[in-house]
Specification:
By secondary structure, the chain is of the alpha+beta class. It has one domain (about 5-105): Winged helix-like DNA-binding domain superfamily/Winged helix DNA-binding domain (Arc Repressor Mutant, subunit A). The protein has helices spanning about 20-30, 30-40, 60-75, 90-100, 100-110, and strands spanning about 5-10, 45, 75-80, 85-90. β3 and β4 (about 85-90) form a beta hairpin. The longest helix is centred in the N-terminal third of the chain and has 13 residues, at about 30-40.
């Protein structure tokens, strides 16, 4: 029996026309920012559903697909289909060429500590 293994590259936009506003808007979401940092740590093509493992972030498949689409549309990641898996990788060289220092800044300045709302604070839903 002959098995054919098909890998399909998903078209992504060129990085050059991406504005810093679009990139920063994509990174403004804490889940997407965590995703980009985790993908950077993974280093190479990784299954999209495995990227957030170990980050403490749990989201549904449709939400993950949405976040991957936003990041791809912003020119931050590449996607390819390998059988039933969607593999993703950062567009390191493209990002560095278009926005020098952006990825290094994300690496250097890790996640901010979670905001702590003191008990009794009016931001807890009170008046």
């Amino acid at each position: 029996m002959i098995t054919i293994h098909l890998v399909i590259e998903v078209n992504e936009p060129a990085v050059e026309p991406a504005s810093i506003d679009v990139v920063l808007a994509a990174l403004a979401d804490p889940v997407r920012l965590t995703f980009v940092r985790a993908l950077d740590a993974a280093g190479d093509w990784t299954c999209g559903s495995d990227v957030l493992a170990g980050t403490g972030v749990t989201i549904g498949k449709s939400t993950l697909s949405h976040h991957i689409k936003v990041l791809r549309d912003a020119g931050l990641i590449r996607t390819r289909v390998d059988g039933i898996r969607r593999l993703v990788t950062l567009r390191d060289d493209d990002i560095e060429r278009r926005f020098p220092g952006l990825l290094n800044m994300l690496r250097k300045h890790g996640p901010a500590p979670a905001a702590v709302v003191p008990s009794g604070d009016s931001r807890e839903g009170g008046a």
